[in-house]
């Protein structure tokens, strides 16, 4: 049970353990410092170690989990919670409530980020069987109200979601940072002007120090779950993965394998001002989960902030089919046709004095979707630590799918040649101009589905 609980963010796990009814759609809106940390170096390491079979996979797994365990422990010691992973990146929240004043929590979060950078010295010039590699991180932080909810279909798949403007600001801060930097949004500096900064970059500030010692403030540990929660906990993972974890058979979960990855960008949700947004998102994701299950894929992730709102859907892991590429294309076409209009919904938020909203019918929403698809060898596995982990994929193929999603126009499905080739005669395709991609010597041939 404890192993399954580690796949939930702390605040969602607390709700579940306290017996909160109706976990699906249960919504919190809390002010928090959001920390977004993106590490570079694992992708080339993964690509190189994939040439060494299971030995290479085991080496990469050990390095990944060592890195994440160190960072997760540090974040937890400062009172932060790891809300989500994005391959080799992570997003953490430092909730502002009854645990202290805002300025002290802001400084604690910034001190945590600076300490994370200090710990990176241990990950320079790492010797592996594939050569020497170094890891570097960039960290961005922002503050403001963050929406936290659970969406999906409890009989198919559930996902925890965090969303809101602070995630976008933290991602933008990270983008403006250089390796080794900690960047904060100016709103944080206004709340804690004692923070030492060395440079301004638009609305963001480069941090060099936090005076004094903000001190540690770990959250209380989670209690052990009871058996009645097993179906709900299992719904947060792919069924085959949940079974392996419960049976203690996770030895071969982490592997390099060929997959087809869909990055699905979607817009039309106002996470900051629309009081019914959680209900609208729940309606949409429940339908997405059913479509993905129909084609036997894995709704691996729902992520907001960096690159906007997006879904990550995997075909080929944790289970594989001979026709995964075809399944992925049919799934993409079905997702493209999905709409979020004319749905009767109710919405309520935890901590609000207002009664639940009455039923309403959604008008034609400014909803749009764009999809990028890529196929190839990736690292798939459980990453993190005993207290917090997720099943994720990482590698050049994953990055390519994300790049194609960003290049797609609203309503477009774009596939790289590696995904197009196996199903070229099964669908109607339009060749597009080859796409320049960072890190590749030649533009990538792409096709519109």
Walkthrough of the structure:
With 449 residues, the protein is an alpha+beta fold. The chain is globular. Mean pLDDT is 89; it is low at 342-364. Helix content is 32%, strand content 32%. Strand 9 (196-201) and strand 10 (204-209) form a beta hairpin. The chain has one domain: Alpha-Beta Plaits (2-Layer Sandwich). Strands 1, 2, 3, 6, 7, 8, 9 and 10 form an 8-stranded mixed sheet that branches. Strands 11, 12, 13, 16, 17, 18, 19 and 20 form an 8-stranded mixed sheet that branches. The protein has a two-stranded antiparallel ribbon with strand order 4-5. It has helices at residues 2-5, 10-17, 42-49, 53-77, 102-119, 165-176, 186-191, 230-234, 239-246, 277-294, 324-337, 396-407, 417-420; strands spanning 27-40, 81-86, 89-95, 126-128, 131-133, 136-153, 157-163, 182-185, 196-201, 204-209, 255-267, 298-303, 310-315, 344-345, 360-361, 368-385, 388-394, 413-416, 430-435, 444-448.
Structure, briefly:
The chain is 32% helix and 32% strand. By secondary structure, the protein is of the alpha+beta class.
Rg of Cα set: 21 Å
Total domain units: 1
What is the percentage of strand-forming residues?
A: 25-35%
CATH third-tier fold name: Alpha-Beta Plaits
CATH class: Alpha Beta
Structural class: alpha+beta
Main sheet summary:
8 strands, mixed
CATH architecture: 2-Layer Sandwich
Uncertain segments are 342-364
CATH superfamily: Nucleotide cyclase, GGDEF domain
Shape: globular
Count of beta strands = 20
Q: How far apart lie the N and C ends?
A: 42 Å
**Helix segment tally:** 13
> Roughly how much helix do the residues carry, as a percent range?
25-40%
Round the mean pLDDT to the nearest integer and report it: 89
């Amino acid at each position: 049970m404890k192993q399954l609980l580690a796949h939930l963010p702390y605040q969602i796990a607390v709700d579940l353990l306290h017996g909160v009814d109706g976990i699906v759609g249960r919504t919190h809106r809390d002010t928090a410092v959001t920390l977004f940390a993106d590490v570079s170096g694992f992708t080339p390491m993964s690509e190189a170690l994939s040439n060494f079979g299971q030995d290479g996979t085991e080496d990469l797994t050990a390095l990944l989990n060592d890195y994440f365990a160190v960072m997760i422990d540090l974040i937890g010691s400062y009172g932060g919670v790891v809300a989500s992973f994005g391959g080799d990146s992570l997003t953490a929240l430092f909730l502002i409530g009854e645990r202290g004043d805002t300025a002290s929590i802001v400084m604690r979060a910034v001190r945590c980020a600076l300490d994370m950078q200090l710990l990176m010295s241990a990950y320079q010039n790492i010797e592996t069987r594939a050569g020497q590699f170094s890891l570097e991180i960039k960290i961005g932080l922002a503050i403001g109200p963050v929406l936290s909810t659970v969406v999906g279909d409890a009989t198919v798949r559930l996902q925890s979601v965090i969303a809101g403007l602070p995630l976008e600001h933290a991602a933008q801060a990270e983008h403006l940072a250089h390796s080794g930097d900690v960047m904060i949004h100016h709103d944080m500096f206004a709340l804690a002007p004692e923070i030492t900064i060395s440079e301004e970059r638009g609305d963001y500030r480069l941090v060099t120090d936090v005076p004094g010692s903000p001190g540690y403030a770990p959250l209380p540990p989670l209690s052990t779950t009871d058996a009645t929660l097993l179906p709900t906990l299992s719904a947060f993972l792919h069924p085959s993965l949940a079974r392996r974890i419960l049976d203690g058979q996770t030895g071969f979960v982490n592997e390099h394998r060929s997959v087809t990855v869909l990055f699905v960008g979607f817009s039309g949700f106002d996470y900051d001002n629309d009081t019914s947004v959680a209900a609208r998102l729940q309606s949409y994701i429940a339908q997405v989960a059913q479509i993905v299950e129909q084609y036997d894929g894995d709704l691996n992730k729902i992520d907001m902030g960096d690159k906007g709102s997006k879904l990550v859907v995997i075909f080929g892991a944790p289970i594989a089919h001979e026709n995964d590429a075809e399944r992925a294309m049919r799934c993409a076409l079905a997702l493209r046709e999905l709409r979020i209009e004319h749905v009767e919904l109710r919405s309520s938020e935890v901590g609000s004095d207002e009664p639940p909203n009455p039923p309403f019918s959604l008008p034609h929403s400014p909803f749009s979707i764009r999809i990028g698809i890529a196929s190839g060898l990736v690292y798939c596995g459980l990453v993190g630590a005993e207290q917090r982990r997720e099943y994720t994929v990482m590698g050049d193929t994953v990055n390519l799918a994300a790049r194609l999603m960003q290049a797609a126009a609203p309503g477009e499905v774009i596939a790289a040649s590696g995904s197009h080739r196996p199903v070229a005669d099964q669908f109607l395709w339009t060749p597009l101009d080859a796409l320049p991609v960072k890190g590749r010597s030649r533009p990538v041939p792409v096709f519109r589905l």
